[in-house]
Write a structure and sequence with these properties.
The complex is a heterodimer of chains A (137) and B (146). Chain A has 137 residues and is α+β, with helices and mostly antiparallel strands. Chain A has a domain at 11-21 and 55-135: Hotdog Thioesterase (Thiol Ester Dehydrase, Chain A, Roll). Chain A is 23% helix and 34% strand. Chain A contains three helices and five strands. A five-stranded antiparallel sheet of chain A has the order 1-3-4-5-2, with helices on one face. The mean pLDDT of chain A is 96. Chain B has 146 residues and is α+β, with helices and mostly antiparallel strands. Chain B has a single domain, classed as Roll (Thiol Ester Dehydrase, Chain A). Chain B is built from four helices and five strands. In chain B, strand 3 (100-113) and strand 4 (118-128) form a beta hairpin. Chain B is elongated, with a radius of gyration of 17 Å. Classes of the chains: A alpha+beta (137), B alpha+beta (146). Chain A binds chain B through residues 18-19, 25, 28-29, 31-39, 45, 48-50, 57-60, 62-64, 66-67, 69-71, 74-76, 78-85, and chain B through 22, 25-26, 28-32, 34, 36, 46-47, 52, 54-57, 59-61, 63-64, 79-91, 94, 139.
Chain lengths: 137, 146
């Protein structure tokens, strides 16, 4: 049986642990996402902007959250997905994405799980907080 | 200060033709290993017409077209000062390789905090496919740090 058929509030989604952020990842994500802001790929630009170094795109962290969600339930069930970028994900940060079923709610006539998602680095700092609505069918 | 005259401004349409190579590149960049996102047969077996765009991919439309950069230039927000504050998606139907997505955005709010040290711009967007069907609604909050 698919785990989402027996979903309960408080249930945790299997966490997703990423390798530490490196420059190659940021370079590839810049190209793939269309975000060419040099602050994520060019050390000289980042320093001029007052940052110690380049840092991860917020949308890279949100894409990792998306991986956690679509691994748990097919993407076709994803109704809403939002994220608040709370802190900068720096080079060397190893992010763990965690998700937890906050509640079961009815939205527009559909039974849905509301999932709270967080991206936390190896020092326990929360970088991104997300919220998703997954239809349970 | 960001000129409040931009409140209500509607962007030029941003067109993004979804193709397999780009979607596979995106999957690689985010470390996605589920074959649904890279293997056409797996995608079809999962009920998609072709490789589906992952949940956050459509953010690329206004990046590729230059619409996001244009907005920053219009609002006179230097690239070095902008941060992404929040991002939201509401999904209506899948977007797959072969689809041509058009995104149109409207600036729905501009406000500041900390006595103007931080300014916020909220943009609401609609992504439609080549049949004019609503694929997703997007909501972005950009932060300008002074």
């Amino acid at each position: 049986m698919n785990p989402i058929d027996t979903v309960q509030p408080g249930q945790e989604l299997p966490p997703l642990t990423l390798a530490p952020v490196d420059r190659t990842t940021l370079f590839l994500f810049g190209g793939a996402s269309g975000d060419h802001n040099p602050i994520h790929i060019d050390l000289d630009f980042a320093r001029k902007a007052g940052m110690p170094d380049v840092f991860a795109h917020g949308m890279l962290g949100m894409a990792w959250m998306g991986r956690l969600l679509t691994r748990w339930a097919p993407q076709a069930r994803l109704r809403r997905f939002s994220a608040r970028f709370q802190g900068i994900t720096h080079l060397g940060n190893a992010i763990t994405v965690r998700g937890r079923v906050a509640e079961i709610v009815e939205v527009e006539g559909e039974r849905c799980a509301r999932i709270e998602v967080t991206n936390t680095n190896q020092f326990g700092q929360v970088k991104i907080v997300g919220d998703a609505l997954v239809a349970l069918g | 200060m960001i000129d409040r005259k931009w409140l209500g401004h509607v962007s030029a349409p941003a067109e993004l033709a979804l193709d397999r190579a780009r979607l596979r590149f995106f999957a690689e960049a985010i470390g996605e290993t589920d074959p649904v996102y890279t293997d056409v047969e797996a995608a079809r077996a999962a009920g998609y017409a072709d490789l589906p765009a992952p949940p956050t991919f459509l953010f690329a439309a206004e990046m590729d077209s230059g619409a996001t950069m244009r907005t920053l230039a219009d609002l006179e927000i230097p690239l070095a000062k902008v941060l992404h504050g929040e991002q939201g998606f509401t999904y209506h139907r899948p977007a797959c390789a072969g689809d041509v997505i058009t995104v149109i955005s409207k600036i729905v709010d501009i406000y500041d905090k900390k006595g103007g040290a931080l300014e916020f711009v909220v943009k609401q967007s609609e992504a439609r496919n080549q049949h004019g069907e609503l694929v997703a609604a997007l909501r972005s909050t950009l932060v300008c740090r002074h």
